[in-house]
Amino acid sequence: MKALRYLNPGILKTEEIDSPVCADGEALVRVHSAGICGSDMAIFAGKHPRAKPPLVMGHEFAGEIVEIQPGGIETQLAVGDRVTAYPLLVCGSCWACRNGVSHVCRDLKLIGIDRDGAFAEYVSVPLDLLVKFSDRLTYDQAALIEPLAVGVHALEMAGEPDWQTALVIGCGPIGLLVGLCLQNAGIENLLMCDINPRRVKRAAGMNFQAINSADTNLVDRVTEMTQGEGADIVFECAGSAPAALQMCDLVRSRGKIIMVSVHKEPHPVDLRAISFKEISMIGTRVYTPGNYRQALQLITDLPYEDVISHRVNLESGADGFDIMGQAADACKVIIKAEI
Ligand SMILES: [Zn+2]
Ligand SMILES: [Zn+2]
Predict the structure, then answer these.
(1) Is residue 34 within 8 Å of residue 251, measured between CB atoms?
(2) DSSP per position, 229-261
(3) Ligand with smallest separation from the Cα of 103
(4) N or C: which end of the chain has fewer CB within 10 A?
(5) Res 237 pLDDT > 90
(6) What is the CA(152)–ligand 2 centre distance, in A?
(7) Alpha helices, DSSP H only, in 45-163?
(8) ipTM of the prediction greater than 0.90, yes or no
């Protein structure tokens, strides 16, 4: 089969390799759509702590089942079903796994990072991780369930919405999907920001109140919007050092900061402001199986097309990574089996 393989930092190649063997308890899925994630970019740059070449990346995907090896596992799934996957592989025995929060397993692994993923014609997936979806969803739409589940989880971690004014820092795919979750939750006083004018434009085009924080003073704007108090809640979706440093200035006393992005290094944070304003800073990682199912429901009615900026075919999959890394207007880039 054809697969886009990560061979070395900065080197990706679409090449012919053996199709994965469908092991007992797994299904072989013919991949139709797979999204490139920020973590794939980190792998490509050689900055991921676990991913080792050669590797087929891709954990946000949708396709159809072409083979099932039940291996004694009872399953409702059948050949021909349209499926996506909850891509987390957990140890099952650590504290998190024993306490119902296996998404923060001490030894968390992912399909597409720790074993071959979906930037290929076929991927083999444990049956219990597959999630069936109906004909009402397109494959591209279903490939967005995974990043949308990140947004669903972020809102769950934010707790009961006793907050009215929300700020989302970063208008990349995750920021936009968090914004859509907030809109869906009925949060009206929502401000989005980014330093990339193309991303701000995309957010504004989706009817978000969006500002370019490179040329507008964000603290002034939030202060003005909140009668001098600061936002009730800030969702940090940028993952950058300036965002980490500024976020405490943007939230009110007793407000919340939800860390949605993954900061690749320890960035400075204003800890004094956390004390003085009694800010709650809440970490989030991926999603629970429940969040994934919620995202599957939610994606049906969301303007998902607005989040997709480019599509490339598997043959030129490496171009998708170049677009993600370099194109100013890049948002979610989808690799398609064929276009
Ligand atoms: Zn992802
Ligand atoms: Zn575990």
Answers:
(1) no
(2) S-EEEEEE-S--HHHHHHHHHHEEEEEEEEE-S
(3) 2
(4) C
(5) yes
(6) 22
(7) 95-98, 139-143, 145-158
(8) yes
